[in-house]
Amino acid sequence: MDEFRFEITEELEDIRIDKCLSLLIDSLSRSFIQRLIKDNALRVNGHPVKGSYQVKAEDIVEFILPKAVEPDIEPEDIPLDILYEDRDVIVVNKPKGMVVHPAAGHYSGTLVNALMYHCGSDLSGINGILRPGIVHRIDMNTTGSVIACKNDIAHNRIAEQLKEHSVTRRYQAICHGTFREMSGTVDKPVGRHPTDRKKMAVNEKNGKRAVTHYRVLNAFREYTYIECELETGRTHQIRVHLASIGHPLLGDEVYSDRKSPFRLQGQTLHAKTLGFVHPSTGNYTEIDAPLPDYFRHLLEIL
């Protein structure tokens, strides 16, 4: 168990305690902090507090973070479409419908299960038992390039590039409608939806800066084939940004209320190009994931 103790500074005064702690500790969500409060596990100046408490300067906040109980994740012999592999990293072309790492409801059949079988013990351990080797992820129904790391040095170096937004990430997508301009940029903060916690949204109040650059590859009567390049990497960023400008992704069942005339499994989005500085050689390495069959067939129809 990890024990935490903070003294509140003047800059944080009068902020509700759950929000205050989520600002101090990025890895803790406000809902998790609320559970600590409900269990009387969070104390201020030695006394349990209520969730509505607003912190004061010089308050002493203390709590013990219970150790998470993680299920055993088993290696599974699941075929992988490997785009690149060496002793430091492996880049896989993830298929539609595959979850990247285990989570509630998905403890088998994930990319991690497949990587554990393929790589054995050669996966970085920084993200723990549930996410060995994983430094970033893409959505279950998004296809394309995912990089995993085989050791902690590689993990730290790739993670730092992701943090600095220096990793090249270009996606291809088909979205509703036609664009007036052949290229553009969406610069809108993305954060949790204010009422639906399972969704993300353009959130001016609590969102983090998110920037997506796009260009038109081909225009059809009702749809547009585009390329998007991420400057930042927020959860569901492309899906939220395109929906916010009136061009939701074809097949997106979360961020679009437009019906698709095609039989699709979720959004038409493919992580095509992934570029990074190799953690050992220092050379820039760029990997290209070919479009999946369903995507190419859809383009032919359009």
Q: Would you write up a description of this structure?
A:
By secondary structure, the chain is α+β, with helices and mostly antiparallel strands. 18% of the residues lie in helices and 28% in strands. The protein contains six helices and 15 strands. The mean pLDDT is 91.
Brief descriptors of the model:
302 residues; alpha+beta; nine-stranded mixed β-sheet; four-stranded antiparallel β-sheet; 6 helices; globular
Strand composition percent: 25-35%
The termini sit apart by 56 Å
Rounded to the nearest angstrom, the radius of gyration is 21 Å
How would you classify the helix and strand content by structural class?
Answer: alpha+beta
Query: Percent helix among the residues?
Result: 10-25%
Q: Any idea what the shape is?
A: globular
Number of helices: 6
This entry's quaternary arrangement is: single chain
Largest beta-sheet characterization = 9 strands, mixed
Which regions contain 5 or more consecutive residues with pLDDT less than 50? Answer: none
| H-E string | EHHEEEEEHEHEEEEEEHEEH
Could you give the count of β-strands? 15
Mean pLDDT value: 91
Topology:
Layout: E1 2-7, H1 17-24, H2 30-38, E2 42-44, E3 47-48, E4 60-65, E5 82-85, E6 89-94, H3 111-119, E7 143-149, H4 152-163, E8 168-176, E9 183-187, E10 190-192, E11 200-202, E12 211-219, E13 223-230, H5 237-244, E14 269-277, E15 284-288, H6 293-301
Parallel strand pairs: 7-14
Antiparallel strand pairs: 1-4, 2-3, 2-4, 5-6, 6-7, 8-13, 8-14, 9-12, 10-11, 12-13, 14-15
Helix pairs in contact: 1-2
